[in-house]
Amino acid sequence: MPLRAVILYGTGDPTANTTAPTGALAGSGWQYEGAFNGLGGTVIATNYFITAKHIGGSVGNIFVFNGVNYTTDAAFPDPSSDLQIWRVAGNFPTHAPVFSSAPGSEVNLGLVVIGRGRQRGSAVTVGDDSHLGGWLWGSFDDVQRWGTNVVGSIFIDSTYGDLLRAPFNSDAGPNEAHLAPGDSGGAVFVLNPATNVWELAGINLAADGPFSASQTGANSFDAAMFDTTGLFVPGAVGGWVSAPNPSAFYATEIAVHRGFIEATVMGLSSVVSRKMHGNTAFDVHLPESGPPGIECRSGGMTNNYQLVFTFANDVSVTNAIISSGAGSVSTVAVQGNLVTVNLMGVMNAQTITLTLKNVNDGINISDVEAKMSVLVADTNADRSVDSADITNTKSQSGSAVTESNFRKDINADGFLDSADISLVKSKSGTGLPSTSVTLSAPVGSTSLRTFPLPPTKPRPSAILPRKKSGEQRR
Ligand SMILES: [Ca+2]
Ligand SMILES: [Ca+2]
Ligand SMILES: [Ca+2]
What we know:
The chain is mainly beta and 474 residues long. Helix content is 6%, strand content 38%. It has three helices and 30 strands.
């Protein structure tokens, strides 16, 4: 009998939930899921799918979708998360909508999770009365299975960034799901109340654990635990700490990486904030992954800026909007593979998101966003204007404006002089708002168990050798 993936609270039956969910869960993402080297991947555009970076893979590997083989021809790892996007030769007949509301709004939404990992293994008992607390990770699997859960919180991990955390509860019904190795790369879909559409919200990454009944970590084991009474897990800073109860799985949050996803799918080469310094243009690069780029040059009396998008292919765009932050779009010009957007009223000491609507390159259609933080006179891009910026600006006074010092020409007039020094002094003490967010993170003191996976296709129905304690811990 084939073994099935995703560990369910209600049953160890290997045939459960191995076909598309129905009823209230119909159309909840199963139809967008394929297999990549025996693991999960989700179609997100005409010729792109997304999965987890830590599962590896090589260009030329096959992605199987609806029984059709697609050969990968390019990989796009996200430098700031565990996401990886692959391009394929050929066109998919359908693709998943990406979560379209703000990061953090997934919390408390019901989810459907899809994986290809291990089945439910032997029972684990806990507590003085040896009651059932969960199940060991069972045998490896290569068959797709779904389960449900709820996004309990956003967990911010120092390595993997913002993650959806889904606790494995004993009172949440028979389809309540936990994950195990082999489920990595599979999808989390949520029903977004803003659109009433099931949207891709996460990519499976990790689980709590391993567990030990001893604070020394002796005889540790991996398991899906809905009750961790008396168990310990590795702490984030070493040692063993009381396990979060219940344990949970983690998926990389899609919403915070929309920019990277859209830029990749649409072949965006770069976005810059461009200003003329006299007769010469200089560009502040606005990266699509990681913290937004910081524009430090003054926008003048009406706070004008110009963003230039460069795509690999010629595109069309319906319009551009400021989707967050203070500012407005004055003009949009599309010329071949270049989209130039002029902005006005872009206030200082804030971050804006500019969204190009319905970018179309003839193959894929998607919105594309760019984020720009504006902090006039932050010449060293450290999010505050202080004596370091004043010293910087003074040190270049009288020099010609070049690629290496243009940030000190704060008024962008083509000269580095006393006017820039006066400007930086007048802005001293300003800064960008803190990016640190305080959210409920019940396991903030523990480390994550990233699913250990071979980069090549796992042998179905085989048990991976147990890793030595600590080998997979950070
Ligand atoms: Ca739950
Ligand atoms: Ca600074
Ligand atoms: Ca100047």
